[in-house]
# Entry
Amino acid sequence: MQAEQAQAQPQPTEPTYVWWQRGIIYEVYPHSFMDSNGDGVGDLKGLISRFDYLRWLGIDAVWLSPIYPSPMKDFGYDVADYTAIHPRFGTMEDFDRLVRETHAHDIKLILDFVPNHSSDQHPWFIESRSSRDNPKRDWYIWHDPAPGGGPPNNWLSNFGGGAWEYDPKTAQYYYHAFLREQPDLNWRNPQLVEAMLNVLRFWLERGVDGFRVDVLWHLIKDDQFRHNPPNPYWREGADPYQKLLELHSTDQAEVHAVVTRMRRLVDQYQDRVLIGEIYLPVERLVQYYGIDLSGVHVPFNFQLLLAKWNARDIARIIAEYEAALPKGGWPNWVLGNHDRSRIASRVGPTQARLAAMLLLTLRGTPTLYYGDEIGMRDVEIQPAKVQDPFEKTVPGLGLGRDPQRTPMQWTAAKNAGFTEGEPWLPIAEDYPQINVEAERDDPFSMLSLYSRLIKVRRCESALEVGVLEPVETTGDLLSYVRRDGESAFLVALNFGTKPETLNISGKGFEGRITLSTWLNRSADSVRGDLYIRPEEGLLVRLLTQTQSGDVLI
Ligand code: NOJ
# Structure
Protein backbone atom coordinates (compact mmCIF):
# COMPACT_ATOMS: atom_id res chain seq x y z
CA MET A 1 0.00 0.00 0.00
CA GLN A 2 2.77 2.37 1.01
CA ALA A 3 4.64 1.61 -2.18
CA GLU A 4 1.53 2.36 -4.22
CA GLN A 5 1.15 5.68 -2.43
CA ALA A 6 4.77 6.50 -3.07
CA GLN A 7 4.24 5.77 -6.74
CA ALA A 8 1.23 8.02 -6.86
CA GLN A 9 3.27 10.97 -5.57
CA PRO A 10 4.23 13.28 -8.45
CA GLN A 11 8.00 13.22 -8.76
CA PRO A 12 9.70 16.63 -8.68
CA THR A 13 10.95 17.22 -12.22
CA GLU A 14 14.46 18.47 -12.75
CA PRO A 15 14.47 21.57 -14.94
CA THR A 16 15.94 20.78 -18.31
CA TYR A 17 18.18 23.11 -20.22
CA VAL A 18 18.82 23.23 -23.92
CA TRP A 19 22.17 23.53 -25.64
CA TRP A 20 22.13 27.30 -26.07
CA GLN A 21 21.41 27.75 -22.37
CA ARG A 22 24.21 25.48 -21.20
CA GLY A 23 26.58 26.29 -24.03
CA ILE A 24 29.24 28.85 -24.87
CA ILE A 25 28.98 30.83 -28.11
CA TYR A 26 32.12 31.77 -30.02
CA GLU A 27 32.00 34.43 -32.73
CA VAL A 28 34.05 33.78 -35.84
CA TYR A 29 34.67 36.76 -38.10
CA PRO A 30 35.17 34.79 -41.30
CA HIS A 31 37.58 37.21 -43.00
CA SER A 32 40.03 36.78 -40.17
CA PHE A 33 39.80 33.28 -38.78
CA MET A 34 41.74 31.01 -41.10
CA ASP A 35 42.69 31.30 -44.77
CA SER A 36 43.01 28.02 -46.68
CA ASN A 37 43.80 29.28 -50.18
CA GLY A 38 46.41 31.98 -49.69
CA ASP A 39 44.29 34.94 -50.81
CA GLY A 40 44.79 36.63 -47.46
CA VAL A 41 41.13 36.32 -46.42
CA GLY A 42 39.70 33.64 -44.17
CA ASP A 43 37.30 31.10 -45.68
CA LEU A 44 35.04 28.18 -44.88
CA LYS A 45 37.68 25.53 -45.53
CA GLY A 46 39.98 27.40 -43.19
CA LEU A 47 37.32 27.40 -40.51
CA ILE A 48 36.67 23.70 -41.02
CA SER A 49 40.37 23.01 -40.52
CA ARG A 50 40.18 24.59 -37.05
CA PHE A 51 37.34 22.61 -35.57
CA ASP A 52 39.71 20.41 -33.62
CA TYR A 53 40.95 23.54 -31.88
CA LEU A 54 37.42 24.73 -31.15
CA ARG A 55 36.50 21.33 -29.78
CA TRP A 56 39.59 21.36 -27.59
CA LEU A 57 38.76 24.85 -26.36
CA GLY A 58 35.33 23.57 -25.38
CA ILE A 59 32.99 26.05 -26.99
CA ASP A 60 29.55 24.80 -28.01
CA ALA A 61 28.45 27.00 -30.89
CA VAL A 62 30.08 29.05 -33.62
CA TRP A 63 28.33 32.24 -34.66
CA LEU A 64 29.64 33.03 -38.10
CA SER A 65 29.46 36.65 -39.30
CA PRO A 66 28.02 37.00 -42.85
CA ILE A 67 29.37 34.76 -45.60
CA TYR A 68 26.89 35.72 -48.34
CA PRO A 69 27.65 37.31 -51.71
CA SER A 70 28.30 40.97 -51.06
CA PRO A 71 30.17 43.93 -52.55
CA MET A 72 31.80 44.04 -49.09
CA LYS A 73 31.16 47.73 -48.55
CA ASP A 74 30.44 46.75 -44.94
CA PHE A 75 32.30 43.46 -44.99
CA GLY A 76 29.33 41.23 -45.61
CA TYR A 77 26.69 43.22 -43.75
CA ASP A 78 25.65 44.44 -47.21
CA VAL A 79 24.11 41.28 -48.61
CA ALA A 80 23.56 40.93 -52.36
CA ASP A 81 22.11 37.42 -52.20
CA TYR A 82 20.69 35.96 -49.01
CA THR A 83 20.81 32.33 -50.11
CA ALA A 84 24.28 31.84 -51.54
CA ILE A 85 27.91 31.88 -50.43
CA HIS A 86 30.43 34.55 -51.41
CA PRO A 87 33.11 32.90 -53.58
CA ARG A 88 35.69 34.54 -51.34
CA PHE A 89 34.57 32.18 -48.57
CA GLY A 90 33.85 29.09 -50.67
CA THR A 91 30.96 27.33 -52.32
CA MET A 92 27.62 25.95 -51.20
CA GLU A 93 29.29 22.53 -51.12
CA ASP A 94 31.87 23.91 -48.71
CA PHE A 95 29.02 25.27 -46.66
CA ASP A 96 27.25 21.92 -46.53
CA ARG A 97 30.51 20.37 -45.46
CA LEU A 98 30.88 23.05 -42.82
CA VAL A 99 27.49 22.09 -41.39
CA ARG A 100 28.49 18.42 -41.34
CA GLU A 101 31.88 19.09 -39.78
CA THR A 102 30.47 21.43 -37.18
CA HIS A 103 28.01 18.80 -36.09
CA ALA A 104 30.58 16.01 -36.29
CA HIS A 105 32.56 17.99 -33.72
CA ASP A 106 29.47 18.33 -31.57
CA ILE A 107 29.35 22.05 -32.19
CA LYS A 108 26.36 24.11 -33.38
CA LEU A 109 26.40 26.57 -36.24
CA ILE A 110 24.69 29.95 -35.96
CA LEU A 111 24.50 32.14 -39.05
CA ASP A 112 24.30 35.90 -39.18
CA PHE A 113 20.99 37.06 -40.65
CA VAL A 114 20.97 40.65 -41.89
CA PRO A 115 17.31 41.57 -42.35
CA ASN A 116 17.31 45.33 -41.81
CA HIS A 117 19.05 46.23 -45.05
CA SER A 118 20.47 44.61 -48.14
CA SER A 119 23.22 45.73 -50.47
CA ASP A 120 22.22 48.29 -53.08
CA GLN A 121 23.43 45.60 -55.51
CA HIS A 122 20.78 43.13 -54.38
CA PRO A 123 18.45 42.38 -57.34
CA TRP A 124 15.51 43.41 -55.12
CA PHE A 125 16.91 46.92 -54.74
CA ILE A 126 17.90 47.18 -58.36
CA GLU A 127 14.29 46.44 -59.21
CA SER A 128 12.94 48.66 -56.46
CA ARG A 129 14.84 51.70 -57.63
CA SER A 130 14.00 51.11 -61.31
CA SER A 131 10.60 52.86 -61.16
CA ARG A 132 8.00 54.08 -58.71
CA ASP A 133 5.55 51.45 -59.81
CA ASN A 134 7.90 48.48 -59.76
CA PRO A 135 6.34 45.66 -57.69
CA LYS A 136 9.38 45.71 -55.39
CA ARG A 137 9.28 49.49 -54.90
CA ASP A 138 7.71 49.07 -51.48
CA TRP A 139 10.25 46.44 -50.39
CA TYR A 140 12.49 49.36 -49.43
CA ILE A 141 11.74 52.64 -47.70
CA TRP A 142 11.11 55.35 -50.26
CA HIS A 143 9.87 58.82 -49.42
CA ASP A 144 9.13 62.06 -51.19
CA PRO A 145 11.38 65.00 -50.41
CA ALA A 146 10.31 67.30 -47.56
CA PRO A 147 7.77 69.95 -48.66
CA GLY A 148 10.46 72.58 -49.19
CA GLY A 149 12.82 70.01 -50.74
CA GLY A 150 15.59 68.03 -49.08
CA PRO A 151 15.45 64.79 -47.08
CA PRO A 152 12.11 63.75 -45.56
CA ASN A 153 13.35 64.09 -41.98
CA ASN A 154 16.47 64.58 -39.85
CA TRP A 155 17.40 60.93 -39.31
CA LEU A 156 21.10 60.18 -39.32
CA SER A 157 23.13 57.30 -40.69
CA ASN A 158 25.02 55.21 -38.14
CA PHE A 159 28.05 55.62 -40.35
CA GLY A 160 27.95 59.42 -40.51
CA GLY A 161 25.89 62.00 -42.38
CA GLY A 162 22.21 61.88 -43.22
CA ALA A 163 20.27 58.64 -43.59
CA TRP A 164 18.40 59.56 -46.77
CA GLU A 165 19.79 59.22 -50.28
CA TYR A 166 18.18 61.03 -53.18
CA ASP A 167 17.57 58.94 -56.26
CA PRO A 168 17.24 61.34 -59.22
CA LYS A 169 15.72 58.73 -61.51
CA THR A 170 12.50 58.49 -59.52
CA ALA A 171 12.84 61.76 -57.59
CA GLN A 172 12.45 60.15 -54.18
CA TYR A 173 14.73 59.44 -51.25
CA TYR A 174 15.49 56.01 -49.84
CA TYR A 175 16.40 55.41 -46.23
CA HIS A 176 19.64 53.78 -45.12
CA ALA A 177 20.41 53.45 -41.42
CA PHE A 178 23.97 52.49 -42.33
CA LEU A 179 25.87 53.12 -45.59
CA ARG A 180 24.07 54.50 -48.63
CA GLU A 181 25.00 51.16 -50.19
CA GLN A 182 22.87 49.46 -47.50
CA PRO A 183 19.25 50.52 -48.21
CA ASP A 184 16.80 49.58 -45.44
CA LEU A 185 14.22 46.94 -46.25
CA ASN A 186 10.59 47.66 -45.51
CA TRP A 187 9.36 45.18 -42.90
CA ARG A 188 5.86 46.65 -43.13
CA ASN A 189 5.54 45.05 -46.57
CA PRO A 190 4.04 41.53 -46.31
CA GLN A 191 5.79 40.20 -49.42
CA LEU A 192 9.15 41.34 -48.15
CA VAL A 193 8.44 39.64 -44.81
CA GLU A 194 7.55 36.42 -46.59
CA ALA A 195 10.69 36.59 -48.75
CA MET A 196 12.88 37.07 -45.69
CA LEU A 197 11.19 34.26 -43.79
CA ASN A 198 11.95 32.08 -46.79
CA VAL A 199 15.60 32.98 -46.35
CA LEU A 200 15.45 31.62 -42.81
CA ARG A 201 13.72 28.48 -44.06
CA PHE A 202 16.42 27.98 -46.67
CA TRP A 203 19.22 27.87 -44.09
CA LEU A 204 17.22 25.95 -41.49
CA GLU A 205 16.61 23.25 -44.09
CA ARG A 206 20.35 23.13 -44.71
CA GLY A 207 20.84 22.31 -41.07
CA VAL A 208 21.94 25.52 -39.35
CA ASP A 209 21.20 25.66 -35.65
CA GLY A 210 20.09 29.25 -35.44
CA PHE A 211 20.63 32.87 -36.31
CA ARG A 212 22.13 35.97 -34.85
CA VAL A 213 19.86 38.69 -36.22
CA ASP A 214 21.65 41.91 -37.13
CA VAL A 215 20.30 45.19 -35.64
CA LEU A 216 17.01 43.58 -34.74
CA TRP A 217 15.69 46.66 -32.97
CA HIS A 218 15.96 48.66 -36.21
CA LEU A 219 13.54 46.65 -38.33
CA ILE A 220 10.47 48.86 -37.99
CA LYS A 221 10.53 52.65 -38.25
CA ASP A 222 7.94 55.22 -37.26
CA ASP A 223 5.14 55.11 -39.83
CA GLN A 224 4.92 58.92 -39.81
CA PHE A 225 8.69 59.40 -40.13
CA ARG A 226 8.78 62.01 -37.38
CA HIS A 227 12.03 63.85 -36.68
CA ASN A 228 14.30 62.38 -34.04
CA PRO A 229 14.87 64.71 -31.07
CA PRO A 230 18.35 66.06 -30.24
CA ASN A 231 20.43 64.25 -27.64
CA PRO A 232 21.11 66.77 -24.85
CA TYR A 233 24.17 64.80 -23.72
CA TRP A 234 25.97 64.80 -27.06
CA ARG A 235 29.28 66.65 -27.08
CA GLU A 236 31.58 67.73 -29.91
CA GLY A 237 34.05 64.97 -30.71
CA ALA A 238 31.61 62.16 -29.94
CA ASP A 239 30.09 59.85 -32.54
CA PRO A 240 27.98 62.18 -34.73
CA TYR A 241 25.20 59.59 -34.96
CA GLN A 242 24.59 60.13 -31.24
CA LYS A 243 23.60 63.77 -31.87
CA LEU A 244 20.00 62.60 -32.10
CA LEU A 245 18.10 60.13 -29.96
CA GLU A 246 16.87 57.31 -32.18
CA LEU A 247 13.35 57.67 -30.80
CA HIS A 248 11.42 57.25 -34.04
CA SER A 249 13.87 55.38 -36.23
CA THR A 250 14.29 52.25 -34.06
CA ASP A 251 12.64 50.12 -31.36
CA GLN A 252 9.07 50.74 -32.49
CA ALA A 253 6.30 48.76 -30.81
CA GLU A 254 5.42 46.95 -34.05
CA VAL A 255 8.85 45.31 -34.24
CA HIS A 256 7.80 42.69 -31.72
CA ALA A 257 5.21 41.21 -34.07
CA VAL A 258 7.97 40.76 -36.64
CA VAL A 259 10.21 39.07 -34.10
CA THR A 260 7.38 36.73 -33.16
CA ARG A 261 6.97 35.73 -36.82
CA MET A 262 10.65 34.82 -36.99
CA ARG A 263 10.42 32.93 -33.73
CA ARG A 264 7.38 30.95 -34.80
CA LEU A 265 9.18 29.88 -37.92
CA VAL A 266 12.37 28.90 -36.09
CA ASP A 267 10.29 26.94 -33.60
CA GLN A 268 9.01 24.74 -36.40
CA TYR A 269 12.49 23.22 -36.44
CA GLN A 270 13.92 21.30 -33.55
CA ASP A 271 16.39 22.80 -31.14
CA ARG A 272 17.22 26.02 -32.98
CA VAL A 273 18.06 29.39 -31.48
CA LEU A 274 17.19 32.96 -32.35
CA ILE A 275 19.56 35.63 -31.07
CA GLY A 276 18.96 39.34 -31.46
CA GLU A 277 21.60 42.02 -31.78
CA ILE A 278 20.03 44.80 -29.72
CA TYR A 279 21.76 47.83 -28.24
CA LEU A 280 19.17 49.22 -25.85
CA PRO A 281 18.89 50.01 -22.15
CA VAL A 282 18.07 46.91 -20.13
CA GLU A 283 14.39 47.65 -19.59
CA ARG A 284 13.89 47.97 -23.38
CA LEU A 285 16.21 45.10 -24.19
CA VAL A 286 14.26 42.57 -22.17
CA GLN A 287 11.10 43.41 -24.11
CA TYR A 288 12.66 41.39 -26.92
CA TYR A 289 12.06 38.18 -25.02
CA GLY A 290 8.51 38.92 -26.10
CA ILE A 291 5.18 38.41 -24.41
CA ASP A 292 5.21 34.90 -22.90
CA LEU A 293 8.70 34.47 -24.31
CA SER A 294 7.47 34.65 -27.90
CA GLY A 295 10.42 36.81 -28.97
CA VAL A 296 14.07 35.92 -29.43
CA HIS A 297 15.58 33.26 -27.18
CA VAL A 298 18.65 35.41 -26.61
CA PRO A 299 18.52 39.20 -26.80
CA PHE A 300 22.25 39.84 -26.77
CA ASN A 301 23.25 41.57 -23.55
CA PHE A 302 26.10 43.95 -24.34
CA GLN A 303 26.50 45.54 -20.94
CA LEU A 304 29.98 44.12 -20.37
CA LEU A 305 31.08 45.75 -23.62
CA LEU A 306 29.91 49.14 -22.46
CA ALA A 307 30.48 48.94 -18.69
CA LYS A 308 32.77 51.11 -16.64
CA TRP A 309 35.28 48.52 -15.53
CA ASN A 310 34.98 48.50 -11.76
CA ALA A 311 33.41 46.25 -9.14
CA ARG A 312 30.59 48.59 -8.21
CA ASP A 313 29.35 49.23 -11.73
CA ILE A 314 29.55 45.60 -12.70
CA ALA A 315 27.73 44.51 -9.54
CA ARG A 316 24.98 47.02 -10.34
CA ILE A 317 24.72 45.82 -13.94
CA ILE A 318 24.39 42.21 -12.83
CA ALA A 319 21.73 43.05 -10.24
CA GLU A 320 19.69 45.25 -12.60
CA TYR A 321 19.86 42.72 -15.39
CA GLU A 322 18.86 39.79 -13.18
CA ALA A 323 15.97 41.87 -11.81
CA ALA A 324 14.79 42.92 -15.27
CA LEU A 325 14.66 39.44 -16.80
CA PRO A 326 11.15 38.20 -17.43
CA LYS A 327 10.08 34.93 -15.84
CA GLY A 328 11.75 32.12 -17.77
CA GLY A 329 13.91 34.56 -19.78
CA TRP A 330 17.40 33.10 -20.04
CA PRO A 331 20.28 35.54 -19.42
CA ASN A 332 23.37 35.97 -21.57
CA TRP A 333 26.58 37.98 -21.51
CA VAL A 334 28.78 39.16 -24.38
CA LEU A 335 32.40 40.10 -23.76
CA GLY A 336 33.54 41.00 -27.25
CA ASN A 337 32.45 41.28 -30.85
CA HIS A 338 33.61 42.56 -34.22
CA ASP A 339 32.20 46.04 -33.58
CA ARG A 340 33.89 46.83 -30.28
CA SER A 341 37.41 47.28 -29.01
CA ARG A 342 38.85 44.00 -27.73
CA ILE A 343 38.62 43.26 -24.02
CA ALA A 344 42.42 43.03 -23.60
CA SER A 345 42.66 46.58 -25.00
CA ARG A 346 39.65 47.93 -23.16
CA VAL A 347 40.79 46.85 -19.72
CA GLY A 348 44.39 45.69 -20.14
CA PRO A 349 45.83 42.18 -20.18
CA THR A 350 45.61 41.45 -16.45
CA GLN A 351 42.05 42.66 -16.04
CA ALA A 352 41.18 40.71 -19.19
CA ARG A 353 41.90 37.56 -17.14
CA LEU A 354 39.41 38.76 -14.57
CA ALA A 355 36.96 39.44 -17.38
CA ALA A 356 37.35 35.84 -18.58
CA MET A 357 36.46 34.55 -15.14
CA LEU A 358 33.54 36.96 -14.90
CA LEU A 359 32.14 35.96 -18.30
CA LEU A 360 32.46 32.25 -17.64
CA THR A 361 31.03 32.31 -14.13
CA LEU A 362 28.08 34.63 -14.61
CA ARG A 363 24.61 33.19 -14.96
CA GLY A 364 23.68 33.00 -18.62
CA THR A 365 25.04 32.01 -21.99
CA PRO A 366 28.50 33.50 -22.54
CA THR A 367 29.56 34.81 -25.96
CA LEU A 368 33.21 35.29 -26.68
CA TYR A 369 34.93 36.77 -29.67
CA TYR A 370 37.60 34.86 -31.60
CA GLY A 371 41.10 35.70 -30.40
CA ASP A 372 40.01 37.09 -27.04
CA GLU A 373 40.79 33.67 -25.60
CA ILE A 374 44.47 34.16 -26.44
CA GLY A 375 44.49 37.80 -25.33
CA MET A 376 44.57 39.40 -28.78
CA ARG A 377 44.63 43.15 -28.68
CA ASP A 378 43.38 45.90 -30.98
CA VAL A 379 45.90 46.60 -33.71
CA GLU A 380 46.59 50.15 -34.80
CA ILE A 381 45.84 50.40 -38.51
CA GLN A 382 47.81 52.81 -40.66
CA PRO A 383 45.54 55.12 -42.72
CA ALA A 384 46.57 53.44 -45.99
CA LYS A 385 45.43 50.06 -44.67
CA VAL A 386 42.02 51.10 -43.35
CA GLN A 387 39.23 48.83 -44.56
CA ASP A 388 36.27 49.64 -42.34
CA PRO A 389 33.79 52.07 -43.94
CA PHE A 390 33.02 53.56 -40.52
CA GLU A 391 36.61 54.78 -40.20
CA LYS A 392 36.44 56.13 -43.74
CA THR A 393 33.17 58.02 -43.32
CA VAL A 394 33.83 59.28 -39.78
CA PRO A 395 37.62 59.39 -39.61
CA GLY A 396 39.79 60.19 -36.65
CA LEU A 397 37.32 59.61 -33.81
CA GLY A 398 38.52 56.10 -33.08
CA LEU A 399 35.27 54.58 -34.33
CA GLY A 400 36.86 52.30 -36.93
CA ARG A 401 36.52 48.59 -36.28
CA ASP A 402 39.53 47.22 -38.15
CA PRO A 403 41.69 47.12 -34.98
CA GLN A 404 39.55 44.35 -33.49
CA ARG A 405 39.17 42.43 -36.75
CA THR A 406 42.79 41.50 -37.44
CA PRO A 407 43.70 37.90 -38.33
CA MET A 408 43.64 35.17 -35.72
CA GLN A 409 47.09 34.41 -34.36
CA TRP A 410 47.65 30.67 -34.66
CA THR A 411 51.43 30.22 -34.54
CA ALA A 412 54.70 32.11 -34.42
CA ALA A 413 55.29 31.38 -38.11
CA LYS A 414 54.91 33.95 -40.89
CA ASN A 415 51.57 35.79 -40.81
CA ALA A 416 50.80 34.04 -37.54
CA GLY A 417 49.90 30.91 -39.49
CA PHE A 418 46.74 32.63 -40.73
CA THR A 419 47.59 32.82 -44.43
CA GLU A 420 50.25 31.99 -46.97
CA GLY A 421 49.41 35.22 -48.77
CA GLU A 422 49.13 38.88 -47.89
CA PRO A 423 46.66 39.23 -44.99
CA TRP A 424 43.72 41.54 -45.66
CA LEU A 425 44.44 43.41 -42.42
CA PRO A 426 47.81 43.64 -40.68
CA ILE A 427 48.72 40.99 -38.12
CA ALA A 428 49.40 42.15 -34.57
CA GLU A 429 53.09 42.61 -33.81
CA ASP A 430 52.81 40.54 -30.65
CA TYR A 431 51.91 37.38 -32.58
CA PRO A 432 55.21 35.55 -31.89
CA GLN A 433 54.16 35.39 -28.21
CA ILE A 434 50.39 35.76 -28.41
CA ASN A 435 49.29 32.77 -30.48
CA VAL A 436 47.44 29.51 -30.03
CA GLU A 437 50.42 27.22 -30.45
CA ALA A 438 52.61 29.02 -27.93
CA GLU A 439 49.82 29.42 -25.40
CA ARG A 440 48.43 25.93 -25.50
CA ASP A 441 51.43 24.53 -23.67
CA ASP A 442 51.92 27.45 -21.32
CA PRO A 443 49.97 26.89 -18.11
CA PHE A 444 50.03 30.61 -17.32
CA SER A 445 48.72 31.80 -20.69
CA MET A 446 45.38 33.43 -21.31
CA LEU A 447 44.42 30.45 -23.45
CA SER A 448 45.11 28.03 -20.61
CA LEU A 449 43.00 30.17 -18.32
CA TYR A 450 40.12 30.19 -20.80
CA SER A 451 40.36 26.49 -21.45
CA ARG A 452 40.37 25.70 -17.71
CA LEU A 453 37.49 28.03 -17.01
CA ILE A 454 35.50 26.52 -19.86
CA LYS A 455 36.22 22.99 -18.68
CA VAL A 456 35.14 23.75 -15.13
CA ARG A 457 32.02 25.49 -16.35
CA ARG A 458 31.08 22.58 -18.59
CA CYS A 459 31.47 20.07 -15.75
CA GLU A 460 29.66 22.02 -13.09
CA SER A 461 25.95 22.57 -13.29
CA ALA A 462 26.25 25.27 -10.60
CA LEU A 463 28.24 27.33 -13.09
CA GLU A 464 26.31 26.36 -16.19
CA VAL A 465 22.78 26.78 -14.95
CA GLY A 466 22.83 27.50 -11.23
CA VAL A 467 21.32 30.54 -9.57
CA LEU A 468 23.44 33.59 -8.86
CA GLU A 469 23.50 34.97 -5.32
CA PRO A 470 25.29 38.28 -4.80
CA VAL A 471 27.64 38.06 -1.80
CA GLU A 472 29.45 41.32 -1.25
CA THR A 473 30.71 44.27 -3.23
CA THR A 474 33.02 46.51 -1.29
CA GLY A 475 35.67 48.74 -2.77
CA ASP A 476 37.24 46.86 -5.63
CA LEU A 477 35.88 43.48 -4.70
CA LEU A 478 32.96 41.83 -6.45
CA SER A 479 31.76 38.47 -5.18
CA TYR A 480 28.87 36.16 -5.82
CA VAL A 481 27.90 32.54 -5.41
CA ARG A 482 26.63 30.22 -8.12
CA ARG A 483 24.60 27.37 -6.78
CA ASP A 484 22.76 24.36 -8.10
CA GLY A 485 21.39 22.01 -5.47
CA GLU A 486 24.25 20.79 -3.31
CA SER A 487 26.93 22.25 -5.50
CA ALA A 488 28.11 25.84 -5.08
CA PHE A 489 30.98 28.07 -6.10
CA LEU A 490 32.09 31.41 -4.76
CA VAL A 491 33.52 33.86 -7.30
CA ALA A 492 35.64 36.67 -5.89
CA LEU A 493 37.06 39.24 -8.28
CA ASN A 494 39.47 41.93 -7.15
CA PHE A 495 39.34 44.76 -9.70
CA GLY A 496 41.84 46.85 -7.74
CA THR A 497 45.60 46.92 -7.49
CA LYS A 498 45.67 46.33 -3.73
CA PRO A 499 44.98 43.02 -2.01
CA GLU A 500 41.47 42.44 -0.66
CA THR A 501 40.09 40.08 1.91
CA LEU A 502 36.67 38.59 2.17
CA ASN A 503 35.64 37.02 5.42
CA ILE A 504 33.93 33.94 4.13
CA SER A 505 33.35 32.22 7.45
CA GLY A 506 31.21 35.19 8.40
CA LYS A 507 29.03 34.27 5.43
CA GLY A 508 28.92 30.63 6.52
CA PHE A 509 31.26 29.46 3.78
CA GLU A 510 34.34 27.34 3.60
CA GLY A 511 35.82 25.87 0.52
CA ARG A 512 38.73 25.01 -1.68
CA ILE A 513 40.21 27.14 -4.42
CA THR A 514 39.45 25.62 -7.82
CA LEU A 515 41.00 28.26 -10.01
CA SER A 516 42.78 31.57 -9.77
CA THR A 517 43.35 33.96 -12.65
CA TRP A 518 46.93 34.03 -11.38
CA LEU A 519 46.99 30.26 -11.92
CA ASN A 520 50.07 29.72 -9.75
CA ARG A 521 47.97 29.36 -6.64
CA SER A 522 47.52 25.99 -5.07
CA ALA A 523 44.18 24.38 -4.43
CA ASP A 524 44.21 25.67 -0.85
CA SER A 525 41.38 25.06 1.51
CA VAL A 526 39.92 28.35 2.61
CA ARG A 527 37.97 29.42 5.64
CA GLY A 528 38.02 32.62 7.68
CA ASP A 529 39.54 35.35 5.58
CA LEU A 530 39.86 34.69 1.87
CA TYR A 531 42.85 36.64 0.63
CA ILE A 532 42.57 37.90 -2.95
CA ARG A 533 45.64 39.30 -4.59
CA PRO A 534 45.66 42.49 -6.67
CA GLU A 535 43.65 42.02 -9.85
CA GLU A 536 43.05 38.40 -8.98
CA GLY A 537 39.91 36.42 -9.62
CA LEU A 538 39.21 33.32 -7.55
CA LEU A 539 36.82 30.49 -8.10
CA VAL A 540 36.21 28.64 -4.85
CA ARG A 541 34.27 25.43 -4.59
CA LEU A 542 32.19 25.71 -1.46
CA LEU A 543 31.88 22.80 0.91
CA THR A 544 28.26 22.26 1.70
CA GLN A 545 26.89 20.37 4.66
CA THR A 546 24.49 17.57 3.90
CA GLN A 547 21.70 16.86 6.34
CA SER A 548 23.66 13.92 7.72
CA GLY A 549 26.57 16.22 8.42
CA ASP A 550 28.84 14.88 5.68
CA VAL A 551 30.86 17.47 3.90
CA LEU A 552 30.48 17.34 0.15
CA ILE A 553 33.24 18.66 -2.04
C1 NOJ B 1 25.76 45.45 -36.85
C2 NOJ B 1 26.96 44.67 -37.29
O1 NOJ B 1 27.48 43.97 -36.19
C3 NOJ B 1 27.93 45.67 -37.86
O2 NOJ B 1 29.17 45.09 -38.11
C4 NOJ B 1 27.33 46.23 -39.11
O3 NOJ B 1 28.17 47.22 -39.65
C5 NOJ B 1 25.96 46.84 -38.83
N1 NOJ B 1 25.15 46.00 -38.00
C6 NOJ B 1 25.21 47.05 -40.09
O4 NOJ B 1 24.78 45.81 -40.60
In short: The chain is about 25% helix and 15% strand. The two ends are 38 Å apart (CA to CA).
